TrEMBL record:
Protein name: Uncharacterized protein
Amino acid sequence: MDSECFFVYDNKHSWSIIENKEGKYFLHYYPGSPSVEKLAAIPSEHWHEVNVRSVVYTSEILGTKEARDSLKELSSIVREKLYGMDAVLDEIIGTGKF
């Protein structure tokens, strides 16, 4: 289980995704596009104290294997982007050194 990843889609939609200890995925959409930097800075123990609106999708509520697989893939893609894997892989492929 990793920490929650916050991201912006299409330069205007704020989201986050996390996998809990039981392997369930939670995808949050934050209407009004609040700053993901500010959202990420809220300590987990203080989320109940702030007024943050969100819509939550979970692998459990969506219920299908396909939905769980899609959330798992999205989580992987978001983490790859966060860690700059596109540039790393481009560098590896570009140098031809394996």
